[in-house]
UniProtKB/TrEMBL annotation:
Protein's name according to its UniProt entry: Parvulin-like PPIase
Keyword Signal: yes
Nucleotidyltransferase found in the keyword field: no
InterPro entries tied to this protein: OMP_Chaperone_SurA, PPIase_dom_sf, PPIase_PpiC, SurA_N, Trigger_fact/SurA_dom_sf
Species name: Parasphingorhabdus marina DSM 22363
Pfam families per UniProt: Rotamase, SurA_N
Positions of the PpiC domain: 183-280
Any one Gene Ontology molecular-function term assigned to this protein's record: peptidyl-prolyl cis-trans isomerase activity
Keywords: Chaperone, Isomerase, Periplasm, Rotamase, Signal
Length: 432
């Protein structure tokens, strides 16, 4: 409900007022102007206030996680979603407190430090300044962390003890795994949003906007943490390794057609819609050649500032000719010195950790052979020489405990969605 308070007014004249059926004069005065310095409540959730500042800080956190590349139109749409997320977060924290669950500040601070170092690669002092410069704050991220920890602990207390997974279920899965040796399983990321018949079009439109942002370079993990309604939101939407038979049929159908790194959606599933991200895939109980451990030597040259494409191409051709004549890693350093190239050694590079386009190229190299040159004028040109390779052993089946844990997590996730829907239904929420 909008509060109307008389103040200096704005006069609006419209000579072609459409027929709305409402008694609205052609010439009218809008009383009251928003003062950006006044903290107004955007919503009151069971007595707890969510202000416009809260929404703005959380929105800025999302924008920062996506490199700041978000259009004004997208920000407005995200603002509405952020408010819904903050309402859910408030309900989760309230429910945890009602169940006498207390999250220590030390635990919140420790997780905050991990996020700063792992997600943003910054120390605490620099991270705090980084957030302020982008219109957010440490408090808004700590509030999100508190909500995630509180909800996770609440689920472990109120739901997980009542989830039953029988030994026979786990043994049946192990038998199916052995029977399925060599078939494909997938590591899936998911952003799930519930939908009813009435709001399905809006949910679909919201998810398409999210998909566009991710396709344009936005962080899937950041969007999953902010918008997914599944309990896996706290882990960036990561479902772990799953077989198609473990997924709802619409998701299974989508997964088997995806390429690694691809994001698709929205996919309609029971109760809502999902965006899927195929993080990786592998063959069940089969050694993955991409897990091979490589010993590599890198030779690199750089170009002086002002080098033209033509000059760089000529220098790169000379570099390629010299490196392709290298006979084994023992001769690489001598060649590097002759052509004035830098050398870097690394004896523990996993094949799967190389950039995608390089994986197939390096996988086909013989010991002592150099890759074709790669790079750019700005970054320089380099080659990789394969000095050694340790192929992976046959993959082992997941343990009994790992399979049981996965089944438990899936069932907790379903119960958690129902739990949150009940909290929303019973909440007293006043919008402003």
């Amino acid at each position: 409900m909008l509060a109307v308070t008389p103040s200096t007014g704005q006069t609006v004249a419209d000579t072609s007022v459409p027929q709305t059926g409402l008694n609205i004069p052609e010439k009218l005065t809008i009383f009251g102007e928003n003062d950006p310095n006044v903290r107004r409540a955007t919503a009151v959730v069971n007595g707890d206030i969510i202000t416009g500042t809260d929404v703005g800080h959380r929105l800025a956190l999302i924008v920062a996680a996506n490199g700041g590349e978000v259009s004004d139109e997208e920000k407005q749409r995200l603002r509405l979603q952020v408010l819904r997320n903050l309402i859910d977060e408030t309900l989760q924290i309230q429910e945890a407190e009602a169940n006498e669950i207390v999250i220590d500040q030390a635990e919140i601070d420790s997780t905050f430090q991990q996020v700063a170092q792992q997600n943003f690669r910054q120390d605490l002092e620099a991270f705090d300044q980084y957030l302020r410069e982008r219109g957010s704050s440490s408090d808004t991220l700590k509030r999100q962390i508190k909500g995630e920890l509180a909800w996770s602990r609440l689920l472990r207390r109120n739901i997980q003890p009542f989830i039953n997974v029988g030994d026979e279920e786990v043994n049946a899965i192990i038998e199916r795994l052995n029977a399925s040796k060599g078939t494909t399983e997938y590591r899936i990321g998911e952003i799930y949003m519930s939908a009813s018949q009435e709001n399905s079009p809006q949910v679909v439109e919201n998810m398409r906007k999210i998909l566009q942002q991710i396709s344009a370079g936005g962080s899937f993990v950041a969007y999953a943490r902010q918008f997914s309604e599944a309990s896996t939101a706290a882990t960036g939407g990561d479902l772990g390794w799953v077989r198609p038979a473990q997924l709802p049929q619409p998701l299974a159908d989508a997964a088997v057609q995806m390429q690694v790194g691809q994001v698709v959606g929205p996919v309609e599933v029971p109760g809502g819609f999902s965006i899927l991200y195929l993080i990786d895939q592998r063959q069940i109980l089969t050694a993955d050649p991409r897990n091979a451990l490589l010993s590599l030597k890198q030779l690199a040259i750089s170009f002086p500032e002002g080098t033209t494409e033509q000059q760089a191409a000529a220098r790169a051709a000379e570099f390629a000719e010299a490196t392709q004549q290298i006979k084994g890693c023992g001769a690489a350093n001598e060649t590097a010195a002759r052509i004035n190239a830098d050398v870097v050694d690394n004896d523990r590079v996993r094949l799967r950790d190389l950039p995608g386009p390089l994986q197939n190229t390096v996988a086909q190299l013989q010991i002592g052979q150099a890759s074709p040159p790669f790079g750019s004028v700005a970054d320089g040109v380099r080659v990789l020489i394969l000095c050694g390779r340790d192929d992976p052993q046959s993959a082992a089946a997941p343990s009994f405990d790992q399979i049981m844990s996965q089944l438990e997590n899936q069932r907790v996730n379903k119960r958690a969605q129902i739990y949150l829907r009940d909290l929303r239904r019973d909440a007293i929420i006043e919008y402003n």
